[in-house]
Model the fold of this input.
Amino acid sequence: MFRLSAMSFAVLALASPVLAADAAVTRPADPVCSGGGDPYQDHACLDATLGDNVLGRFFNYYRLEWGRDAPPADPGAPASRRIGWPATPQTTPPMPFTEWPYGGSTSIGVTRPSSVDSPLMTAIANTPFGRALNDSHIQVYGWINAGGNLSSNTVKGGNAPAAYSYNPNTVQLDQAVVYIERLPDTVQKDHIDWGFRIAPMFGTNYRYTSAYGLFSGQLLQRNSPYGYDIPMAYGELFIPQIAEGLLLRFGRFISLPDIEAQLAPNNYMYSHSMTYTFDNYTNTGLNATLALNRNWMVQLGLTVGTDTMPWNMGQRVANPFPNALYPGSTFRKDPGATPSLSAGVRWTSDTGKDSFYAVANGINGGQWGYNNLQWFGLTYYHKFNDQWHIAFEAYRSYQHGVGNANNPAIAAAYLAGGMPQSQPFNAPGLAFCANATAISCTSSVQTFLTYLNYKATPLDNISFRAEYFDDMQGQRTGTKTRYVNTGLGWQHWFSPQVEIRPELAVYWSLDGRAFNGNSNAGIAPTRSRAIVGSMDVIVHF
Done:
């Protein structure tokens, strides 16, 4: 049984690199160089303050930043945004981002290379390898994210469909992530620039990022509690001479839409909405983002469905149990692995206080495949003042031809492996169609999500989440029901490198029991309400 003391131990263990350097857990007096310089303003002084030893520099950087609400300034750094561009709406800390988020592109007009504040890069900056990386504008950084939860559920896997704490009353390593990247310079307008990102990840969160055909056997064949993934592996080309800049991204990347469509440090809270949990996570292909002017941006992309790999396209496998939906001797490995279109339009006000972003993602024939969701929705952000802002999202998604769970013949064929969607674990679910004798039907979801956020101090953000999620045929969550979710979370930063996020969330299933079950183990849900208290810690490196 997980107890608060175990949570405290986990937090202290993960924060130990910082605590070891500063056992008093208070920000030290500002070190001053012999010449009287301030290491937060004078980078030569900063370098002297940190020392020469790589390991010592690494821990001294944590110690120097402890209690600060911003990394050391570099007075010699070029401007980080174009003149006249909408103002930066937020700061990090305490918010998880500075610009209103949008997907499929490095932020245009506000990104410079080598702009990441990283203890690792600072530690190796005075080595030949570190200097070579900096000269090439390549950054290597990441984080370790771990947490735990106390839940009213008791069955293993019983927190689902709440996420990402799949198992109730446990402590887990959510993410260990490394970013290797070069950011294209999107502020300048005089030359073509390029970039890339490779982001390997290990932890329990792989369950939610997996793409069919890329290490997916960990989840679909073995249901491993821990696994690895590469949710981002892409290159970028920035062409500033077209309008206000055209950015091309190619490879695998986080899908365009969603408030929460990023990894741990880019989210308001530790837990996630069902709105985010059950829609598109990654796209693989090409996405073009064109800034028409400082206010308007348009996007167009060609991808291979969603959460599936290009090598699944057209691949056929034997059909061991022909049935009404798939009567032939073979079927396509993933019917959703097919050329698909994405499109988006974004408007940002001159003040930077408002942003509206409408997206159609992964649009194709809509046939039932692995996460082949036809997604149409929008996000909207509004900043009331320096303390308060709101984030709103709504979408509708659907798939056609989803097998009918109410038809015994279809259900039996699905369980026997007679469909491409059949997997030993975590398979794309059947739909509970209104017509019990139908072979298949269209499965749809409608959702509304709001985050209300309050900047209490430069190191503290409080977020309230309210959500309505209607799984109309039960294909996404396994239960045909409407859900309501509310959550209250506190994001506290000890420094720009260490943060914790305690929270309390309550979930209701309005039309049936959806919690405290496990479909992978054949355990039916027994509860229509779940109460989950949780907390995580993120240590950046």
The CA atoms of residues 108 and 195 lie 13 Å apart. Residues 1-28 have pLDDT under 50 and may be disordered. Residues 54-65 form the longest helix (12 residues). The domain at 104-540 is CATH 2.40.160.10 (Porin).
